UniProtKB/TrEMBL annotation:
This protein's name: Uncharacterized protein
Species in which this protein is naturally found: Streptomyces camelliae
């Protein structure tokens, strides 16, 4: 997915994707959804107060 959809985006308009496309393609060969969900859940959990308080 990353090779066909995102890796070909021009670096001028998408510099962060261009710089990390090879890493993203390796981590998410089929779909970005599992990794995006994991990042969303981690960020959400970090916003919660510590448990037991």
């Amino acid at each position: 997915m990353w090779h066909t959809a995102y890796a070909r985006l021009p670096a001028e308009s998408h510099p962060d994707i261009a710089a990390t496309a090879h890493l993203l393609a390796r981590r998410m060969p089929h779909s970005a959804n599992p990794a995006a969900l994991e990042m969303l859940l981690e960020h959400t959990a970090a916003q919660l107060p510590p448990s037991g308080t």
